[in-house]
Specification:
It is built from two helices and 14 strands. By secondary structure, the protein is α/β, with parallel strands linked by helices. The chain is elongated.
Length: 189
């Protein structure tokens, strides 16, 4: 399965897509065919721990995501080359959309991946007023108890299994609201 950040390593280069983290899309965009028992490329990924895109790149884990590996492939050299391209990948896929307050009182950047802000299970307590998320905002199983003022979500808002009990009047959601496992005491809408 393709996870961010996905790369395809060839003898001469490290490839990624500006639009997708599918290895198949990367192969297609670069006219590479997957039809040999001795492939001319290797699918790899560098993934953040717990899908926390705010973590330093040095903490992201390198994974070879392919069974048949060509003789020329050197994991150490490929990892170094991919890590050198990780900032370029991030310019196309990651965006800091605000600052959140976490359980330890530390404020840190909220990093959206391809427009989505997935905070599922994070120990986040407070989202900033005026937050805009281009895609989905997933707050499932977080410690958020109140949505911020003037929150705008371009996709779906998932507040399942949180302490949220009210929907503010100034909330804008272009997709739906998913709210399993919570009890709304008063809807401001």
């Amino acid at each position: 399965m393709c996870n961010p950040a996905s790369f395809v390593v060839t003898k001469d280069s490290v490839l990624f897509s500006k639009f997708s983290d599918s290895h198949e899309v990367i192969l297609e965009e670069n006219n590479l065919r997957d039809d040999s028992l001795n492939p001319a490329f290797v699918r790899v990924e560098i993934t953040p721990p717990r899908r926390d895109f705010s973590r330093p790149f040095s903490e992201w884990r390198y994974i070879t995501d392919q069974d048949l590996i060509p003789d020329w492939y050197s994991r150490g050299e490929a990892e170094a080359a991919c890590r050198a391209r990780l900032s370029a990948w991030a310019r196309h896929h990651l965006k800091v959309v605000g600052q959140g307050v976490f359980g330890d009182g530390v404020t840190k950047g909220l990093v959206a991946y391809n427009g989505d802000l997935d905070l599922r299970g994070a120990d986040i307590r407070i989202l900033p007023d005026g937050l805009t998320v281009e895609g989905h905002l997933i707050l499932t199983r977080t410690r958020i108890e109140k949505l911020p003022n003037n929150l705008t979500v371009g996709g779906e808002l998932s507040i399942s299994y949180t302490g949220i009990t009210e929907i503010p009047r100034d909330l804008t959601v272009r997709g739906g609201i998913c709210a399993f496992g919570i009890y709304m005491t008063n809807s401001g809408r």
